[in-house]
Amino acid sequence: MPLKQARCDTCGLANPERWLPRFPSELIFVVGGWSKGRAQSTIETFDHRVNRWFQFQSKEVKPRAYHGVVQWRRQVFVIGGLNLAYYLRSVDSFDLDRCKWHHHSPMHVTRAYVATAALGDHIYAIGGHT
């Protein structure tokens, strides 16, 4: 049975915006990570409007790497991860309007290399190592 020919001549015509490059409406956040043999607690933001990176330090952010980060309801959530010695189950968020960190109830299990997503009224932490 021969394979069907793809109809690429009509791909994207119904919704051409779908295939255009995207820019964030405000900032890109990078929280923590692994550098120089240890977990980091730095926070970096990129503002594409001025094409510049900004770096911050906060005592409220504990060093972590291999964690999940997701934006939900004007907050950036940092979920799980790994510090130098332990897998983490912590959940913290940064309120973009008040510029303040919040600590939330921890997950039931530790997770590093975790995938995170926000959908509707929920945040999901999927997979990872425990």
Automatic annotation (TrEMBL):
Gene3D superfamilies, sorted = Kelch-type beta propeller
SMART domains the record matches: Kelch
For whether the record's keyword set contains Repeat, the answer is no
Keyword Transmembrane helix assigned to the entry: answer is no
Keywords from the UniProt entry: Kelch repeat
Per the UniProt record, one Pfam family is Kelch_1
- What is the name of the protein in this document? Kelch repeat protein
